[in-house]
Amino acid sequence: MVRRTVLAVLVIGALALLTISFRSPTSGALHDVQGAGASALKPFQVAAERVARPFRDVYGYFSGLAHAKSENAKLKREVRQLRSTENQHVIAAQRLGELEKVVRFEQGPSFPKDFRSVTTTVISYPSAFTQEVTIAAGSSSGLHIGTPIMTADGLIGHVTNVTPGTAQVMLLTDPDSSVPARDISHGLVGQVHPGQGGTLILDRVAKALQPQKGDLVVTQGTVDSRYPDFYPYGLPIGEVQSVGTSDIASYLTVQLTPFAHFDSLDVVIALIPTKKR
């Protein structure tokens, strides 16, 4: 009961003081008391302000740091997205350029007669252990074992394994690869094998013949119908880079620079015969 009475007195007193404060003039005893109280509390207010200021500064620092980190992360995400978009545009432009070259090759005079093309892409690449690629076309598109594969620049190899949707291609750079070829500038023939440093070798060329740097080398094609070759005549392979010889060798060593870029294969062409062979 006493507690309630004290609480009621305090509430009534507080209300009375508030009423007097609002209704009283700007001067008077009450305002003097208020001023004295404020003056007495001023040192405590200043001290409290000085104590609180470092905490506010620290809070402001960490708040600003968190905001800066958030903005930095946002900017990094935007930069990654822009780079990804730019890379996609670059890849699309490169692929468009490759497709345009393919169309020019298919419509050009060097496209083999009695063949049709299947244009596709490389989906796996050579490794340190295998010189073969996988392409995104298979038997459902007419490919079979032995199907020649090339880019718009030149021959890259032939199919060695096929499924309905994919095919494995042995590259000309594979140690087991061997392609009958002809230097059309001088009419000499030989076998193209992989050389060192991404080059090719045209071997079994007689010393009496004189191939020259820059000569064009193409596939020899089928010479005897009883033994049809994988490749039709005239598919571009590369050009002569150098010609070497030695006293103990029976043949010339003819080094070729391939036309196809084996380190950046993307769009490729499978050559499908339109007539039974």
Model description:
It is a single chain. By secondary structure, the chain is an alpha+beta fold. Strands 1-2-5-4-3-12 form a six-stranded antiparallel beta barrel. Strands 6-7-8-11-10-9 form a six-stranded antiparallel β-barrel. 36% of the residues lie in helices and 28% in strands. The chain folds into two domains: 1-108, no CATH class; 116-277, Thrombin, subunit H, CATH 2.40.10. The chain starts with a helix and ends with a strand.
What tags apply to this protein structure?
single chain, alpha+beta, six-stranded antiparallel β-barrel, 12 strands, 36% helix, 28% strand
At a glance:
The protein is an alpha+beta fold and 277 residues long.
Shape: elongated
Q: Mean pLDDT, rounded to whole units?
A: 80
Number of strands: 12
CATH superfamily of the largest domain: Rod shape-determining protein MreC, domain 1
Identify the CATH architecture of the largest domain.
Beta Barrel
Break the fold down into its secondary structure elements and pairings.
Elements: H1 2-23, H2 29-107, E1 115-124, E2 132-135, E3 148-150, E4 155-162, E5 167-171, E6 179-183, E7 188-194, E8 200-206, E9 216-219, E10 236-244, E11 251-258, E12 267-273
Antiparallel strand pairs: 1-2, 1-12, 2-5, 3-4, 3-12, 4-5, 6-7, 6-9, 7-8, 8-11, 9-10, 10-11
